[in-house]
Amino acid sequence: MGTPAKVPTIVALVPARAGSKRVPDKNVRLLAGHPMIAYTISAALQSDVFAAVVVSTDSEPYAAIARHYGAEVPFLRPPELATDTSPDIAWVECTLKGLLERGRAYDCFSILRPTSPFRQAETIRRAWKEFLAEEGVDSLRAVEKCKQHPGKMWIVRGPRMVPLLPLGPRDQPWHSSQYASLPEVYVQNASLEIAWTRVVSEQRTIAGNVLVPFFTKELEGFDVNDPYDWDLAQDLVRNRNARLPAIQTEQWR
């Protein structure tokens, strides 16, 4: 019998900067009695996938909340990497480097955004299993089928507009076709991403060049981006149309 293959190590990275404009403090707003970030931390811990669950934040109050629910915050994110235009690669690179300087290296990382509260522990386990089953890939990213097809989208330039995607047969352009006849297109969502850490150090990207899709189900990819999403999340929970990850920790006060 051969030696069993070593399972790669993976760290969960939970980005939680302060300063959200559309939904102020959305990462720590109370949803069903707990700060929204608590559900992502709990799902990550309960998945038993990660060697560590690390929150990247520029806020000490946010850090205190994250630690209360079982995550680590070994250092704060620099303010210049916590603006509303900061790219993901900047804080991911900073976090992995900071962990490495503390003697903590991981083969892989997963980005779990707090704005996706309905992602479950089993969602994470399923994604990790699918990632490990693929060879030669750089990363896995959660996607779902588009509700609004880009073939029917337009770029407006002054008093004129042109198709966003000038594709399809000349005699039957996509923008004038029935939705059912268009090719399936998927959009990424906030549920999760998994990648080898080498893509950060070697390519300075969080995705690399070879990606595998992870098809989310039902509300696994739900994302709180604006006030409408926040109100909808509350309604879904209130009417028991959505399931939040179980939290064993006392409520933050």
Care to describe what's here?
The protein is an alpha/beta fold and 253 residues long. 26% of the residues lie in helices and 20% in strands. It is built from six helices and ten strands, in the order βββαβααβαββββαβα. The strands form three sheets. Strands 4-1-5-9-6-10 form a six-stranded mixed sheet, sandwiched between helices. A hairpin with a 2-residue loop joins strand 2 and strand 3. Helix 1 crosses helix 4. It is globular and about 60 Å long. The mean pLDDT is 94.
Secondary structure layout:
Elements: E1 10-15, E2 30-31, E3 34-35, H1 36-47, E4 52-56, H2 60-68, H3 88-101, E5 108-111, H4 121-133, E6 139-145, E7 154-157, E8 160-163, E9 186-196, H5 198-203, E10 211-215, H6 227-238
Parallel strand pairs: 1-4, 1-5, 6-10
Antiparallel strand pairs: 2-3, 5-9, 6-9, 7-8
Structural key phrases:
two-stranded antiparallel ribbon, six-stranded mixed β-sheet, globular, alpha/beta, 10 strands, single chain, 253 residues
Q: Count helical runs.
A: 6
For the sheet with most strands, the description reads:
6 strands, mixed
Percent helix range = 25-40%
Order of helices and strands: EEEHEHHEHEEEEHEH
Summarize the structure.
The chain has helices at 36-47, 60-68, 88-101, 121-133, 198-203, 227-238; strands spanning 10-15, 30-31, 34-35, 52-56, 108-111, 139-145, 154-157, 160-163, 186-196, 211-215. It has 253 residues and is of the alpha/beta class. The strands form 3 sheets. A 6-stranded mixed beta sheet has the order 4-1-5-9-6-10, with helices on both faces. The chain has a two-stranded antiparallel ribbon with strand order 2-3. A two-stranded antiparallel ribbon has the order 7-8.
